[in-house]
Amino acid sequence: MEILKAILFGIIEGITEWLPISSTGHMILLDEFVQLSMSEVFKEMFLVVIQLGAILAVVVLFWKEIWPFTTPQKGWIKKDIFSMWFKIVAACIPAVILELVFGDKMEELFYNYQTVAIMLIVVGILFIQVEQWNKGREAKIVSIDGITFRIAFYIGIFQLVAAVFPGTSRSGATIIGGLILGLSRIVAAEFTFYLAVPVMFGASFLKLLKFGLHFSTLELSVLLVGMVTAFLVSIFVIHFLMGYIKKHDFKVFGWYRIILGIVVILAFLII
User: Fold this and answer.
1) Reduced to 3 states, what is the DSSP secondary structure of residue 139?
2) Helix, strand, or coil here: 183?
3) Which residue from 17, 102, 112, 193 puts its CA 20 to 30 A from 76's CA?
4) Average pLDDT for residues 83-98, to the nearest whole number?
5) DSSP state of 68
6) What percent of the chain has pLDDT over 70?
7) Whole-prediction pTM value?
8) What burial class does residue 122 get, using C-beta atoms within 10 Å of its C-beta: 0-12 exposed, 13-18 middle, 19+ buried?
9) Which residues pair with 162 in a beta bridge?
């Protein structure tokens, strides 16, 4: 039964990590109804480390775009990709500082269904408003190379909000920030994918360090099954999203967030 639950968590993670609808928020809500029969310490670690599976999908799909080394004939390094990674580091700085200083405190205060529901609705409204404002505007930045260090840092500030409030959506916050700052939808989505790699690897490393590496057979099985499922689902979801945003905006995700937030509030009021 725990393995089946891990598969369900992996499916939800693989879908919601890349669509701007909040993976953390959905995982918290799922945990309210489908709880793993494991220790609280393990579940806290599992809900973060399962994201590694989703992140590995980005590494596989975008390997040529993110691997900065090349052959000796071409000079060993790809300067544009190295520059991109330095910009990603700049974007990560605000969230890293916040996590190191206030990580556990933030989880105690905000990791609950009330915060998730409120942020689902608030960010859903923002998506609709930003897309309405952005309608008819021509993007100023249409490639990753066009992102400056200043813009990357500003995107990191938007990501900071998602780090504090579950239900915001890390991808949602950075995409909104990117659109406001003049990025095209495709560039905003791609930068969000790349930005997730160090952020999620770092968060997972800290959680594993805190949990320790002493897993029971069941714990290790649940974790690996969840990660593999998230990886496989993410492959399909990333392909879908990149195709979708070539012809559509993000409003549908905004409406989904608003409806889900209202449903969550009503459901818990009734319960």
Assistant:
1) coil
2) strand
3) 193
4) 88
5) -
6) 97
7) 0.88
8) middle
9) none
